[in-house]
Amino acid sequence: MTMIGGNGRRANSLEARDVATILHPYTNPVIHEAEGPLVLARGDGIHVIDSDGNRYVEALSGLFCASLGFSEGRLVEAAHRQMQALPFYHSFGGRSHEPGIELAERLIAMAPVPMSKVFFANSGSEANDTAIKLVWYYHNAIGKPQKKKIISRQRAYHGVTVASASLTGLPYAHKAFDLPLPGILHTDCPSIYHHGLPGETEEAFATRCADSLEALILREGPDTIGAFFAEPLLASGGCIVPPATYYEKIQAVLRKYDILLIADEVICGFGRLGTMFGTEAFGLKPDMMSMAKQLSAGYQPISALMVNEKIYGAIREQGGAIGTFGHGFTYSGHPVATAVALETLKIYEERDILGHVREVTPVLQAALDGLAGHPLVGDKRGMGLIGALEVTSDKATKTPFDPALGVAAQVGKFALARGVITRAMGDMVHLCPPLIITADEIRDVVAKIGGALDDTLAWLERGRPGR
Predict the structure, then answer these.
(1) Whole-prediction pTM value?
(2) What pLDDT score does 425 carry?
(3) What residues contact 50, with CB distance under 8 A and at least 6 apart?
């Protein structure tokens, strides 16, 4: 048969068909054409199995979302029951259904700060995009049409729609896309590892971040700033845990200038940090909360934006005056997705998933601490069941490797060969295992990551053969 690529893929193989037809997100297309995809066929607990029968621990929960693993029968049954009863309906024009109503009730009851209403969407990007629109809508409704600029942070990740990607503070989300949009601003990343001064304490660094935020607000004009977006823990930007007193100081600045706070709980929400929401872990008082991913354990695409009564009251008045609230998606509150999400939340409660996370968190963080002394590891960061290792060419000076070397990506490749799927981007190797992982499984995963670091060090010392 005709062969393609340097690895002998047959022209009619799944790998070849993928290369021929699919444009992959966050993938280098040149490398993908040469190497092809990893084609997954099945899931089993915390493992996935590829089309050749190889078994891997999914140590990133897919994309920070498969909290209950890949074979939770109750979620499959919930989807099946709902597909039989009402496989689709929309929520436009006041239509509704029982699973959507029950899910909204449960979310409002779970909210760590008082919330009034839930708006359903299909992804974290859509939820954050909706929040941006509501910031503008709200300020129009209350007679402050100039208060529209939105502040995010460097290294933040808030999505990939035109607006939410503008919030995202990572260069690869902006380059060649003509982003960010005007009116989307970025303040300092709260990473003391990257931006702290020699000898600076966490509190002093937090004060400096808050002062920098206030200076930005004053430069732009407080009457022009509408909102501040924050992931409680900055996940995709490198698992950055803000320093002590940071949010206390930041929120004081926001209150001073009457600026809304939106908490992006897309990754932190539903137990990842050992609290139901990251908002609780860091003492946030948001006006809106976006959530997705672990809301349905990744089994159905669904997201939600919760708004407080202040926001809803303005929406109600404006929508009544205009004649409608002119926003929504065809699949907002899809009955199958809401049924699966509702069952997911029931499982979290019935199985005390939060209690389990708190029990095994010290195991993960201690195991990662054990890799901090590795010659390639410049920094280890983490909280709850999420962590990251930052590779560096010089630990003392924090000098990164030449990006062209792809050192973190090589750690990921060696980890894959050892049966562990991570996410390696830039200088970071991310870990975010399913919440159901056991202590022994954690130790095994981290040991294999350690082996992958050793493999990468040897690869570097050999002069990077094959490159």
Answers:
(1) 0.94
(2) 85
(3) 38, 39, 40, 41, 56
